[in-house]
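Chapter summary example: a protein plus adenosine-5'-triphosphate.
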Amino acid sequence: MSTTTLLNVNGIEVIYNHVILVLKGVSLQVPEGKVVALLGGNGAGKTTTLRAVSNLLAGERGAVTKGSIELRGERIEALSTSEMVDRGVIQVMEGRHCFAHLTIEENLLTGAYTRKDGKAAVQQTLDKVYNYFPRLKTRRGSQAAYTSGGEQQMCAIGRALMANPKMVLLDEPSMGLAPQIVEEVFEIVKDLNTKERVTFLLAEQNTNIALRYADYGYILENGRIVMDGVAKDLRENEDVKEFYLGMG
Ligand code: ATP
């Protein structure tokens, strides 16, 4: 089966505050239906890359100053976040960002605000989200503020799913979670990928877990891709083992 390139990031430079060059020519491809991991340590530029794709840099006083970003061949650098949502691209931010005073279910429903296909269809997606995340169903009436870190991460992913995305940009899903919960979250990501054909570009410091669940990986260091390859090969690569597999 041939794969189509869904996202093509081509040689992008990103500058913050007009002076700080953070991405120094990053190129990566995300094939449709795959899970691609963007790996690297603190400050390597992972979040910046995701923000560049979903056009969230302006709020951080950042800008793409070179290169191009294409979604199915269409240039997307100038699209607004809501135009990206219309094209099926949703970002789940680092740190989860659930609305603390809303219940889990209310949080999930905020993810459906751009949909125009009616209440019944939204309810169907909600049922599907609860099917993937039984913990959220149990906690549906609880205020997000009183749920665990793992439940909030699940809620953030569930909320993205409420928009029926084609691609989810997932920033640091393992952050601050216990290993067992991290495993649970990644299992669900893989499930969504295989059963719902959702494509994922995920940024992770936890190389070990990311390479167990991803199809392909890119390693970012100081704003440059220093290595990329099939996840299985990266896992067995001596440099990756030495420098990255202990992280996370
Ligand atoms: P982390 O896992 O710590 O989030 P990261 O790989 O996601 O790391 P980025 O958050 O993309 O890295 O940051 C890359 C570099 O850009 C860092 O040196 C960071 O200090 C800098 N940076 C990030 N956001 C801004 C900003 N709004 N203004 C100026 N510099 C920024």
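Key point: The two ends are 34 Å apart (CA to CA).
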